[in-house]
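sorry to bug you again but im stuck and you know this stuff better than me. what follows is a protein written twice so to speak, once as letters and once as structure tokens for the fold. mainly i need to know what kind of three dimensional shape the backbone takes. anything you notice is useful, everything is just below:
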Amino acid sequence: MRNFKKTMLSAGLGATLLSVGAMNSAVAEVGFGKPGEAVDLVVGYQPYYTESWSGVVINGQQLWKKYLPAGSDVKFEIGLQGSVIVGKMLGEKNHLGYMGDMPAIVSTTKQDTVDIRMIAVLGTSRQQCNVFLVKNDAPEFANGMEAVKWMDGKLVAAPHGACTDRFARWAFEQAGIKPKKYLNMNIEVITSSFKNNKLDAAVIWEPTASKIQLSGLARRAASGESFDGVEGGDAGFLAMLYEIIRDRPDVHRGWLEAELDAQLFMKDLGNASAISKMAENQTEGMDRRVLWASLYGQNPPAIGGGEEKLTLRFVFDDTAKQLVSAATKFLHGRKVVPNEQLRSEAIMDGVANEVLKARGLSAPIGFVGEQPDSAYQ
């Protein structure tokens, strides 16, 4: 039982409780109701994390209204990092969470507190949560690997514990280098450090990477596209409280129907302008050109550009499972999760697979590709 409402009665001058039976009859469990009943949901999402923008589309188009029971209500709450959403889900203040691979994986290991499962894949990429930026007076590099090798003995930063952190540490190993200091900085501090010329390089996610790049505060130098191996990729996952999965299969399936609608909308390049406008409406301090560039912007291969900006998988296919495995091993090595492998129940995409099959689709359902600057509208 999630929450309890207790009625305390006093009798006469002494605050004496009535009988245990009477008290128990006043205890009412607050849950998510029965199948078919209206439901109230709070969704933690990240409009400041491009890889999870299917949540932006669901919110912007109110797609959930098509699939949840009549009278339902959904509130979207912004989390600036996935760890914030995990904390709220563990406190049962968020019921679903749109987040990167690392926090989503961590959330499923806290079942002794609150049972959370990953139910769908938002997307995978090698250019979303793994963009290397360097200071403007850094040398020109022939390729991304050369850029990372230059970081040997330099001041490099990333938000530790995020997908950026896993990629950065792996990239350092691939390049055989060790920064002078590998600093734990959030995106705001990284931005100000580049502005004040106090940082040599950083690894950051979109759309902040494009914001820094297009503002001229630093240069893009590499991404996951600059390396071989599954570890160069990243992913966004959708997590849900198991209580909803267990008690409200209609809500579970309905949300996944809306999620699939959103991903199909994203794969259509004709919707680029609409999506960037929705992202602009749901963020502050982000120019629409920056938001558009984060999902569609074109970069030369020498600085980590690549044809696919985001691959829409929806379910945990082999690529997504490989990313989960690599990320879980990394988190275990950092003593963040208890085991090298997740419990089998951590991933519950059976319903997502049913939804996909019912539409005659298979994973991946498509991808968002780079577009020339002239395509911006």
Observations:
- Confidence is low (pLDDT under 50) at residues 1-29.
